[in-house]
C-alpha cells in the first residue's frame, strides 16, 4: 500500500523524461508505455492489497490559511482503487496503441508527454482525499484534454474545439469551486471525511446542502458533457483518436460521474439534488442518443454515444444506484475505449470519418470489424455481455426507486443505442463498397483485443446470478448512504434485451441489407433538427458568444469615450485655463515686478488696516 | 548724544528705496535698471545699520548683515552686468522692453 | 536585533552600476552587459536578506535607524517633529523586495538587444531599481515617498525616451496620473505626521490601532484619509476608472520597462494598500469593504470584457492586468486571513506572470515586428519552444492549478465567499472570462495554420530561455508549494489582523 504514490509519480516521470530529453525522441512511446504499464501493475497491487488491508490514507501538510492547515495526501478506498485500475489500464493500452497510431506524426514525443501528464493528473484526481487537491487535478486533466484536443494545432477546427472544451468545462468548474468555498466556510475543511461527517451530523443547513450538491453537480455536468454543457465533447473529437478513447470516453469525462460518486453522501442527503442528477442524466441520455441517430461522422457518433452513456450513469446515481452508476462507468470504460480504438483503426486505414463514404470494411479489416462488433454488442446491451449487466442494473435501480418516467426513458435510450450503434456498424463494415485499407499493426490490435475481452467478461463482477461482488465491496463506506437494492422485476432484463435486439433489427432493416447507401441531402424537419443537434450550438453562439461580445464592445466604447473622454476633457479644461494665464505673461520683467510690488503694497496695507494677522 | 533721530534714517532709506524702485520699474536701459537695484539695496543697508544702532534689540548683527549685503550686491551686479553683456552680444540691445523672451 | 547596514547597502547597490556605467564610454560594446551586471549585485544582496530573514519571529527585521532632521514648529515648540532615516523589512516587504530585484534582473536581460543609447537606458533603469528597492525597505512614510518619486521620475524618462510610437503621450499621462496619486499620498502623509508626530510605519500602525478611542484622529478624518489613500494607490493599482494611463504605458513602453512596470511598479499600489490601508485604517476598511469588493468586481469584469475584444496582444495583457488586480481588491475587501493572503499571493503571482508574458511579447516584437493578433498565428510550427512558453504563461495567467495564479485566486475568492458570497458569485464569473480572453489571445498567436511568412524565424535563444524558465519555474514552485510564500508572509504578524 505504501507504494500508492508511485501510481501518479510514474506517469509524471514519463511526462518529464519525454519533455526534457530530446534524444529519446523515437523511444518516447516505449518510455511512456513502460512507465504507464508499471503504474498499472502498481494499481493492481493496490487493488488486491485493498481487499486484504482495507482503506488507506496518508497526508502531509501543504500550507496554511490562518490556523487551518491545508494538507495533501493519497487515499485508497474501494471506489478510487477501482478507478485507478481503470485509468491506468486504459491509459496503458492507449499508450501502446498510440505507438502504432501516431508513428508517423512529427510531434510523436510531445503526444506521449501529454499522455503522461494526463495519466498523472487523472490518477492524482482519483487519489485525492480532499476537495482542493481534487479540484487542482480536476483542472489539470481539463488542460491535458485541451492540449490533446488541440494537438493538431494547425487546424482551425482543432483550435476552436480545444478552446471550447476548455471554456465549457471551466463553466462547470466554477460551480464546483463555489461549492468548495461554501463547504469550507461551513465545515472549516477541504477534507472529504470531515465534510461528510459534518453533513451527516446535520451541521449544514438542508437548503444550503442542496445548493452545494447542485453546484458540485454543475462541475460534473461540465466535465461529463451532460446537457446543457455537452457541446464541447463532440467537437473534442478533433483530437487524435487514441486521445478520444482515453480522455473523452473512458477516463476524464467519467470524472464527472466519479465526482458525484465521491461526494455521494452530500447528494444522498438531499432529495432535490438527487432528482436533479437523475433528471439531467436521463434527459441527456435520450437527448444525445437521438442526435447520434442523425450524425454522419464516425467519431462524433461515438462521442454522442459517450454523452448518452454518461447520462445513463448520472441517472443511476440520481436514482440511488451508487453501485449501478460506478458499474456502468467501469464497463463503459472498456467497451467505449474499445470502440474508439477500433474506430481509430478504421480511420488509420482509410483516412475517412464520414460513415456514408465507407463500407464493406469487414473484408479488409476483419479483426477490427470483429472487435468493433463486440464493442457495439456490449454497448447495446446484448445479453451476457458487459454492457448488458450494467445497463440492467441501472434500469432496475431506476425502476426500484420509483422513477417510472425515467425508467421508460432509459428503456427507450437502450433501444436507440442499439439502433445508432448498428447503423454505424452496418454502414461502415457491411456492404460491398471497396476501399483500399490495410489491417492495423499488432501493436494496435493487442490493446483492442484486451479491451474486447473485458467488454465481454467485464460484467460478471456484478450480477444477480453469480454474485454482487462489486456492490458488496463498493458499499463498505463509513457513511450511512441509503444504498437501495430493490428487488428488480424479472422482466426488466428481458425487455431490455428485446429492445436491444429490436434496435439491431431495425438498423439491419434500414441500413444492413442495402449494398451501398448514399448520404441523402434531403432531410425532413425532424431529421434536420437532429442533424443540427437541436440547434444548441447555434443558440449558444447567438446567446453567449455574441452576448458577451456585445457587452465587451459596450464597455470598450465606455472605456474609449467616457473614461478617456473624461480625462481628455479635464486636460482640455486645464489647457484652456493655462492659455488664459499665458495672456498675462508679456515677458516684460518690469511689468511683472510692478505687479508683484503692487501686490506687496496691498498685502501690507491690509495688514496695517486689519492689524496683525488676518 | 543722539542728534539725528531714527526716523530720519528711515525716511532717507525710504526715499532711496522708492527712487530705486521707480528706476527699476520704468527705465528702459538695463544699465540704469541695475543701478536702480543697487539703490534699493543701499536703502536696505541703511535700514539695517540704523536699526543696528537704534533698534529695539540693538546689536552688531545688523552691521554684519549689511556687510554681507554689500558683498552680495557686488556679486549680483557683476553677474547682472555679465548677463547684460552676453545679451548685448546676442541681441545688440540693452533695452529692457526688447528682452521679453521669458514669455515662451 | 543588532544594527546592520545590510539594507542601506542593498538600496545603494544599484549606484555601483550607475557609477560604473557613467564612466564607461557610451558606445562601449559591453555597456549592456555592464547594465545587467549592475542588477546582479542587488539581486545577490536581496537573496542574502531573503535567506537571513527570520521567519520564526514577528516584527520588523534588519532595522536601521538614524535621526535625519528635526522640524521646530510654533505649534509644539517643545516636541520637535523628527524625520528619521529608518529601514526595515517585514514578511510582506521581503517578498516584494525579492520580486523587485528578481524581475529587474530578468528584465535587464531582455534589454540586451537594445542598440541605441543603452548607457542612458541602463543608468535610468538602475535608478528605477534603486527607487523600487527603497520603496519596499522604507520603514517610514517620508522615505517611502522619496523613493516612490524616484521611481516616477526614472519611469517617466524611460517611457518617454525609449518607448514606442506614442511614447511621449504615454509618459505624460503616466506622470500626470501618478503625480496626482503622489499628491494625495503626500496629503495623507502630512496629516498623519502632523497629528501623530511620527512617520514610522510600524509605530503608526500600533498607535492608530491602540487609539481606537480616536484620541488622535476623528473617525471622519480617518475615513477621508483612507479614501485618499485608496485613490492614491488605486491609481497605481490601477482601479477602474483610473486605468487609462496604465494601458498606454503597457502598450508604449520598452519591453524591459513594461516587465518592471507590470511586474513590480503596479504592485506598489497593492503593497501600499495592504501596508497602509489595511495597517492604518482597518476599521475604515471594514466599513467600506462592500464598496471595495464592488470596485474589485468591476475591475475584474471590466478588464476581462475589454480584453475579450482587443485586437492587439499588449492591450489584451494590459486589460488582463486590470482584471487580475480586481482580484487583489476582492481579497483585501474580504478582510480575513484567507482573502488578504490571497491578495498578497495574487500580487506576487501576477507580478511574475505578467513579467513572463511581457518577456515573451518582447520576443514577438523582436521577431515579428507586430503584436496585432490577426497578423500573427501558427507560430507553434516555427517556434515550438516559444509557443510552449507562451501557452504555459497564458495558462498560468488564467489560473491553472499547479501554478501560482490558481492558489492566489483560490484564496482571494475563498476569503470573499466568507464575507460576501453574493459579490463573490458575480466575481467568479470573471474566471470564465479570463479563460476566454487568455486562450483567445494566446491561441491566436501560437495555433493556426503555418504561415510561410514566418519560416526561418528564430526560436527562443539562450538569453531568452533562461529568464523565461526561471520565471516559469518560480510560478510552478509557488503553485505547487505555496507555503514558500505563506511561511515568509506571516500575514497575521505583518499586518496585524486576523489571528
TrEMBL record, chain A:
Q: Which Pfam families match?
A: Proton_antipo_M, Proton_antipo_N
- Compartments where found: Cell membrane; Membrane
Q: Name one GO molecular function term.
A: NADH dehydrogenase (ubiquinone) activity
Domain NADH-Ubiquinone oxidoreductase (complex I) chain 5 N-terminal residue range list: 62-112
**Which GO cellular component term is one of those annotated?**
plasma membrane
Query: Which biological process annotations from GO are given for this protein?
Result: ATP synthesis coupled electron transport; electron transport coupled proton transport
Mind telling me which InterPro entries this protein's record contains?
A: NADHpl_OxRdtase_5_subgr (IPR018393), ND/Mrp_TM (IPR001750), NU5C-like (IPR003945), Proton_antipo_N (IPR001516)
- Spans traversing the lipid bilayer: 6-25, 37-58, 78-97, 109-128, 134-154, 166-184, 204-222, 243-267, 273-294, 301-327, 333-350, 370-389, 404-430, 442-461, 490-511, 592-613
Q: What is its main location?
A: membrane
How does the protein associate with the membrane? Multi-pass membrane protein
Domain NADH:quinone oxidoreductase/Mrp antiporter transmembrane stretches: 128-417
List keywords of the entry alphabetically.
Answer: Membrane, Transmembrane, Transmembrane helix
Q: Which PANTHER family has this protein been placed in?
A: NADH-UBIQUINONE OXIDOREDUCTASE CHAIN 5
Family recorded in the similarity comment: Belongs to the CPA3 antiporters (TC 2.A.63) subunit A family.
UniProt name for this protein: NADH:ubiquinone oxidoreductase subunit L
Q: Write down the species.
A: Guptibacillus hwajinpoensis
- Print the organism lineage: Bacteria, Bacillati, Bacillota, Bacilli, Bacillales
From TrEMBL, chain B:
Out of the domains of life, which is the source?
A: Bacteria
Question: For this UniProt entry, which segments traverse the membrane?
Answer: 6-25, 32-52, 64-88
Give a GO biological-process term: ATP synthesis coupled electron transport
**Locations listed in the record:** Cell membrane; Membrane
Return the broad EC class: translocase
Catalyses which reaction?
a quinone + NADH + 5 H(+)(in) = a quinol + NAD(+) + 4 H(+)(out)
Q: Which GO terms describe its cellular component?
A: NADH dehydrogenase complex; plasma membrane
Asked if the keyword Transmembrane helix belongs to this entry, the reply reads yes
Q: Does the keyword Secreted belong to this entry? A: no
Q: GO molecular function terms here?
A: NADH dehydrogenase (quinone) (non-electrogenic) activity; quinone binding
How this chain sits in the membrane, per its record, is: Multi-pass membrane protein
Keywords, sorted A to Z: Cell membrane, Membrane, NAD, Quinone, Translocase, Transmembrane, Transmembrane helix, Transport
- The record's EC number reads 7.1.1.-
- What is the annotated quaternary arrangement, including any partners? NDH-1 is composed of 14 different subunits. Subunits NuoA, H, J, K, L, M, N constitute the membrane sector of the complex.
Q: What does this protein do?
A: NDH-1 shuttles electrons from NADH, via FMN and iron-sulfur (Fe-S) centers, to quinones in the respiratory chain. The immediate electron acceptor for the enzyme in this species is believed to be a menaquinone. Couples the redox reaction to proton translocation (for every two electrons transferred, four hydrogen ions are translocated across the cytoplasmic membrane), and thus conserves the redox energy in a proton gradient.
Protein name in the entry: NADH-quinone oxidoreductase subunit K
What is the originating organism of this protein? Guptibacillus hwajinpoensis
TrEMBL record, chain C:
The UniProt transmembrane annotation reads 6-23, 30-53, 87-109, 121-137, 143-162, 174-194, 223-243, 255-276, 288-309, 316-335, 347-365, 385-407, 419-439, 460-480
Q: Which GO terms describe its biological process?
A: ATP synthesis coupled electron transport; electron transport coupled proton transport
Q: Which GO terms describe its molecular function?
A: NADH dehydrogenase (ubiquinone) activity; NADH dehydrogenase activity; ubiquinone binding
Keyword annotations for this protein?
Membrane, Transmembrane, Transmembrane helix
The cellular location(s) given in this protein's UniProt record come to: Cell membrane; Membrane
- Has UniProt tagged this entry with the keyword Transmembrane helix? yes
Pfam families of this UniProt entry?
A: Proton_antipo_M
In terms of domain of life, where is this protein from? Bacteria
Membrane topology, record value: Multi-pass membrane protein
Q: Which InterPro entries match?
A: NADH_Q_OxRdtase_chainM/4, NADH_UbQ_OxRdtase, ND/Mrp_TM
Keyword Flavoprotein carried by entry: no
Q: Which GO terms describe its cellular component?
A: plasma membrane
Domain annotation NADH:quinone oxidoreductase/Mrp antiporter transmembrane: ranges: 138-426
Which family does the record claim for this protein?
Belongs to the complex I subunit 4 family.
This chain's protein is named NADH:ubiquinone oxidoreductase subunit M
* Lineage, highest ranks first: Bacteria, Bacillati, Bacillota, Bacilli, Bacillales
Amino acid at each position: 500500500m505504501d507504494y500508492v504514490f508511485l501510481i501518479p509519480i510514474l506517469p509524471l516521470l514519463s511526462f518529464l523524461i519525454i519533455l526534457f530529453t530530446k534524444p529519446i525522441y523515437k523511444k518516447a512511446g516505449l518510455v511512456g508505455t513502460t512507465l504507464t504499464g508499471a503504474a498499472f501493475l502498481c494499481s493492481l497491487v493496490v487493488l488486491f492489497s485493498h481487499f486484504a488491508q482495507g482503506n488507506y490514507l496518508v497526508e502531509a501538510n501543504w500550507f496554511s490559511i490562518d490556523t487551518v492547515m491545508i494538507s495533501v495526501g493519497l487515499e485508497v478506498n474501494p471506489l478510487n482503487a477501482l478507478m485507478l485500475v481503470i485509468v491506468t489500464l486504459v491509459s496503458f493500452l492507449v499508450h501502446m496503441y498510440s505507438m502504432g497510431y501516431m508513428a508517423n506524426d512529427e510531434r510523436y514525443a510531445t503526444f506521449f508527454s501529454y499522455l503522461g501528464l494526463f495519466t498523472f493528473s487523472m490518477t492524482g484526481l482519483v487519489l485525492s482525499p480532499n476537495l482542493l487537491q481534487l479540484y487542482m487535478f480536476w483542472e489539470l486533466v481539463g488542460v491535458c484534454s485541451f492540449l490533446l484536443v488541440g494537438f493538431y494545432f494547425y487546424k482551425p477546427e482543432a483550435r476552436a474545439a480545444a478552446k471550447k472544451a476548455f471554456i465549457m468545462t471551466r463553466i462547470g468548474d466554477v460551480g464546483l469551486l463555489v461549492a468548495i468555498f461554501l463547504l469550507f466556510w461551513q465545515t472549516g475543511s477541504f477534507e472529504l471525511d470531515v465534510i461528510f461527517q459534518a453533513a451527516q451530523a446535520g451541521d449544514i443547513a438542508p437548503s444550503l446542502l442542496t445548493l452545494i450538491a447542485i453546484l458540485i453537480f454543475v462541475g460534473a455536468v461540465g466535465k461529463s458533457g451532460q446537457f446543457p454543457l455537452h457541446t464541447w465533447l463532440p467537437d473534442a473529437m478533433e483530437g487524435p483518436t487514441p486521445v478520444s478513447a482515453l480522455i473523452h470516453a473512458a477516463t476524464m469525462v467519467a470524472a464527472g460521474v466519479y465526482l458525484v460518486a465521491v461526494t455521494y453522501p452530500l447528494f444522498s442527503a438531499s432529495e432535490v439534488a438527487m432528482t436533479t442528477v437523475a433528471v439531467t442524466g436521463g434527459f441527456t441520455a435520450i437527448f444525445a442518443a437521438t442526435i447520434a441517430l442523425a450524425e454522419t461522422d464516425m467519431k462524433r457518433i461515438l462521442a454522442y454515444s459517450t454523452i448518452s452513456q454518461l447520462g445513463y450513469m448520472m441517472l443511476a446515481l440520481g436514482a440511488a444506484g451508487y453501485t449501478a452508476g460506478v458499474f456502468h462507468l467501469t464497463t463503459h470504460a472498456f467497451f467505449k475505449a474499445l470502440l474508439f480504438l477500433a474506430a481509430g483503426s478504421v480511420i488509420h486505414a482509410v483516412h475517412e470519418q464520414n460513415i456514408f463514404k465507407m463500407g464493406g470494411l469487414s473484408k479488409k479489416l476483419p479483426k477490427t470489424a470483429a472487435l468493433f462488433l463486440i464493442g457495439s454488442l456490449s454497448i447495446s446491451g446484448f445479453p451476457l455481455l458487459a454492457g448488458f449487466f450494467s445497463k440492467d442494473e441501472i434500469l432496475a435501480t431506476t425502476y426500484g426507486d420509483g422513477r417510472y418516467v425515467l425508467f421508460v426513458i432509459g428503456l427507450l435510450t437502450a433501444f436507440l443505442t442499439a439502433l445508432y450503434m448498428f447503423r454505424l456498424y452496418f454502414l461502415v463494415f457491411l456492404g460491398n463498397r471497396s476501399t483500399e485499407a490495410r489491417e492495423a499493426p499488432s501493436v494496435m490490435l493487442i490493446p483492442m483485443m484486451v479491451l474486447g475481452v473485458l467488454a465481454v467478461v467485464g460484467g460478471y463482477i456484478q450480477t444477480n446470478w453469480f454474485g454482487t461482488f462489486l456492490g458488496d465491496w463498493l458499499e463498505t463506506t463509513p457513511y450511512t448512504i441509503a444504498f437501495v437494492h430493490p428487488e428488480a422485476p424479472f422482466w426488466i432484463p428481458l425487455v431490455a434485451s428485446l429492445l436491444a435486439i429490436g434496435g439491431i433489427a431495425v438498423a439491419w432493416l434500414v441500413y444492413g441489407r442495402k449494398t451501398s447507401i448514399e448520404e441523402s441531402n434531403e432531410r425532413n424537419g425532424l431529421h434536420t433538427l437532429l442533424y443540427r443537434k437541436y440547434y444548441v450550438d447555434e443558440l449558444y453562439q447567438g446567446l453567449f458568444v455574441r452576448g458577451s461580445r456585445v457587452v465587451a464592445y459596450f464597455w470598450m466604447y465606455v472605456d474609449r469615450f467616457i473614461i478617456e473622454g473624461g480625462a481628455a476633457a479635464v486636460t482640455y479644461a486645464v489647457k484652456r485655463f493655462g492659455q488664459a494665464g499665458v495672456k498675462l505673461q508679456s515677458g516684460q520683467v518690469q511689468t511683472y515686478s510692478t505687479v508683484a510690488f503692487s501686490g506687496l503694497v496691498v498685502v501690507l496695507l491690509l495688514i496695517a488696516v486689519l492689524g496683525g494677522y488676518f | 548724544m543722539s542728534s539725528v533721530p531714527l526716523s530720519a534714517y528711515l525716511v532717507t532709506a525710504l526715499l532711496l528705496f522708492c527712487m530705486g524702485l521707480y528706476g527699476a520699474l520704468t527705465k528702459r536701459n538695463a544699465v540704469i535698471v541695475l543701478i536702480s537695484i543697487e539703490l534699493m539695496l543701499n536703502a536696505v543697508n541703511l535700514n539695517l545699520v540704523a536699526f543696528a544702532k537704534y533698534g529695539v534689540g540693538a546689536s552688531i548683527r545688523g552691521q554684519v548683515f549689511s556687510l554681507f549685503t554689500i558683498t552680495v550686491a557686488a556679486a549680483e551686479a557683476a553677474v547682472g552686468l555679465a548677463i547684460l553683456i552676453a545679451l548685448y552680444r546676442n541681441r545688440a540691445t540693452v533695452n529692457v522692453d526688447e528682452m521679453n523672451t521669458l514669455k515662451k | 536585533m543588532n544594527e546592520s547596514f545590510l539594507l542601506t547597502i542593498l538600496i545603494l547597490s544599484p549606484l555601483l552600476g550607475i557609477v560604473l556605467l557613467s564612466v564607461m564610454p557610451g558606445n562601449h560594446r559591453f555597456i549592456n552587459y555592464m547594465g545587467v551586471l549592475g542588477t546582479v549585485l542587488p539581486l545577490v544582496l536581496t537573496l542574502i536578506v531573503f535567506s537571513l530573514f527570520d521567519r520564526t519571529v514577528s516584527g520588523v527585521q534588519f532595522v536601521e535607524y538614524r535621526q535625519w532632521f528635526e522640524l521646530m514648529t510654533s505649534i509644539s515648540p517643545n516636541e520637535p517633529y523628527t524625520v528619521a532615516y529608518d529601514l526595515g523589512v517585514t514578511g510582506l516587504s521581503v517578498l516584494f523586495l525579492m520580486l523587485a530585484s528578481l524581475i529587474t534582473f530578468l528584465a535587464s536581460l531582455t534589454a540586451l538587444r537594445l542598440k541605441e543609447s543603452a548607457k542612458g537606458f541602463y543608468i535610468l533603469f538602475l535608478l528605477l531599481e534603486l527607487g523600487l528597492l527603497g520603496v519596499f525597505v522604507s520603514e517610514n512614510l517620508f522615505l517611502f515617498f522619496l523613493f516612490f518619486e524616484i521611481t516616477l521620475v526614472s519611469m517617466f524618462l524611460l517611457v518617454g525616451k525609449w518607448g514606442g510610437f506614442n511614447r511621449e503621450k504615454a509618459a505624460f499621462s503616466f506622470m500626470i496620473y501618478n503625480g496626482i496619486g503622489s499628491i494625495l499620498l503626500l496629503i495623507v502623509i502630512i496629516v498623519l505626521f502632523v497629528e501623530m508626530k511620527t512617520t514610522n510605519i510600524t509605530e503608526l500602525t500600533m498607535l492608530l490601532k491602540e487609539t481606537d478611542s480616536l484620541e488622535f484622529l476623528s473617525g471622519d478624518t480617518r475615513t477621508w484619509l483612507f479614501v485618499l489613500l485608496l485613490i492614491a494607490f488605486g491609481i497605481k493599482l490601477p482601479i477602474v476608472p483610473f486605468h487609462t494611463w496604465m494601458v498606454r504605458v503597457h502598450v508604449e513602453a520598452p519591453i524591459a520597462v513594461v516587465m518592471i512596470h507590470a511586474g513590480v511598479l503596479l504592485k506598489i499600489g497593492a503593497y501600499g494598500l495592504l501596508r497602509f490601508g489595511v495597517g492604518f485604517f482597518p476599521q475604515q476598511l471594514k466599513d467600506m469593504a462592500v464598496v471595495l469588493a464592488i470596485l474589485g468586481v468591476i475591475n475584474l469584469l471590466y478588464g476581462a470584457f475589454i480584453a475579450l475584444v482587443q485586437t492587439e496582444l499588449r492591450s489584451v495583457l494590459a486589460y488582463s492586468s486590470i482584471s487580475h488586480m480586481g482580484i487583489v481588491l476582492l481579497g483585501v475587501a474580504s478582510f480575513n486571513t484567507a482573502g488578504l493572503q490571497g491578495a498578497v499571493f495574487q500580487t506576487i503571482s501576477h507580478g511574475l506572470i505578467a513579467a513572463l508574458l511581457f518577456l515573451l511579447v518582447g520576443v514577438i516584437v523582436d521577431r515579428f515586428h507586430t503584436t496585432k493578433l490577426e497578423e500573427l498565428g501558427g507560430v507553434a510550427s516555427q517556434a515550438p519552444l516559444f509557443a510552449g512558453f507562451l501557452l504555459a504563461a497564458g495558462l498560468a495567467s488564467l489560473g491553472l492549478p499547479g501554478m501560482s495564479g490558481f492558489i492566489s485566486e483560490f484564496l482571494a475568492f475563498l476569503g470573499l465567499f466568507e464575507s460576501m458570497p453574493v459579490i463573490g458569485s458575480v466575481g467568479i464569473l470573471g474566471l470564465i472570462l479570463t479563460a476566454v480572453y487568455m486562450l483567445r489571445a494566446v491561441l491566436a498567436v501560437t495555433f493556426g495554420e503555418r504561415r510561410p511568412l514566418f519560416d526561418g524565424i528564430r526560436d527562443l535563444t539562450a538569453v531568452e530561455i533562461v529568464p523565461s524558465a526561471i520565471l516559469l519555474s518560480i510560478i510552478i514552485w509557488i503553485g505547487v508549494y505555496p507555503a514558500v510564500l505563506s511561511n515568509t508572509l506571516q500575514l497575521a504578524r505583518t499586518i496585524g489582523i486576523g489571528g
